[in-house]
Amino acid sequence: MLNSESLARLKIISAMLIFGTIGIFRNLIPLPSAFISLTRGLIGAAFLLLVITLKGQRLNISAIKGNFLYLAFSGAALGLNWVLLFEAYNYTTVAAATLYYYLAPVIIVLSAAVLFKERLTIKSVICSLIALCGMVPVSGVLSSGLSGINIKGLGFGVGAAFLYSSVVLLNKKIKDIPALDKAFVQLLISAIVLIPYVAFSGQLEGISFTYSSLVMIIVLGVVHTGVAYALYFGAIKNIKASAAAILSYIDPVFAIVLSSAISLALPDKWVLIGGVMILGSTLISEIKFSKE
Fold first, then answer.
1. Which of 33, 10, 61, 58 is nearest to 201 (CA)?
2. Sequence-distant (≥ 6) Cβ neighbours of residue 258 within 8 angstroms
3. Burial track 7-17 (b if 16+ CB lie within 10 A, e otherwise)
């Protein structure tokens, strides 16, 4: 029988594996990224509300009111995190933006030690840094390069990392609320935050749906948003923020493994080395040593 902490780890790993398949589905949808994220948030929130209703339950309004500030700020941070990441892609390469974005786990590890008095062990710091170094080849930045760094791209990417970090840290402050209720409110608020960005960035021009793109968007909304974030947000309260942060590196590694399996082509040696660094550091971070 798994204890609450072990179950939380399993939920976060499951969420990361789901997130790792997003790229495959995204590539099948010929629509702007910000618009897709908006629909993901709305569909995910609607799906969670449907699940709550089908379970014969109601939203716990008193719990939502009691945590509303944290729910509102974390939901807004999630939406703004998507916005800044989209802007980073506009000003720099996907590889560079991804690398900047994965500064987030290091930020979380350091912040958790200050905000929640989580013990900052040498092992957690080293594992975080090794995983971040592993992201260099995994992101593809070695092939695309960082020459001529775009300051705006760097700013947006690092800003997205800080916002993602704040989502994790704020969720640690949310107490006594069902996981589905929490995820529903946060996804709804994140979608609301995205509405003006999508509306004023011209992303609604020429929008048209095919049957296949509509199906893919629904899958992204239900599975990759509703289910994945319910797992993730529901697990955060039962695990150290630093542990959740390091486990998040599973996402890009699994994405690369899955992509390589589908294309039947092995990634180059540097990507493999980076993947080993990330998975190895993640595994070591989870091993309990006697003196810890």
1. 33
2. 20, 21, 24
3. ebbebbbbbbe
When pLDDT is cut at 50, 70 and 90, the band that residue 145 belongs to is low
Q: Residue 214 and residue 218: Cα distance in Å, rounded?
A: 6
pLDDT tens-digit readout, 201-227: 887 777 887 888 899 999 999 999 999
* Calpha distance 78→52 (Å, rounded): 22
Q: How many CA atoms lie within 13 A of 167 on its CB side?
A: 28
Determine the Cα–Cα distance for residues 200 and 92; give it in Å rounded to an integer. Answer: 21
Angle at 239 between CA 236 and CA 245, to 5 degrees: 75
* Residue of 18, 245, 20, 266 lying closest to 131 (CA atoms): 245
State the pTM of this model: 0.88
Q: Are 282 and 247 in contact (CB under 8 A)?
A: yes
Q: How many CB atoms lie within 10 A of CB 171?
A: 25
Q: Phi and psi (nearest 5°) for 108?
A: -65, -45
Cβ–Cβ under 8 Å, residues 226 and 45:
yes
Instruction: Write down the pLDDT at residue 147.
Output: 58
**253 in Cβ contact with 17 (< 8 Å):** no
Q: pLDDT confidence of 98, banded at 50, 70, 90?
A: confident
What secondary structure letter does DSSP report for 141?
H
Q: Would you say 72 and 189 are in contact if contact means Cβ atoms under 8 Å apart?
A: yes
Q: Tokens 């006594």 map to which residue?
A: 176
Contacts of 141 (CB under 8 A, 6+ apart): 93, 95, 96, 98, 99
Q: What is the dihedral of CA 168, 173, 175, 178, to 10 degrees?
A: -20
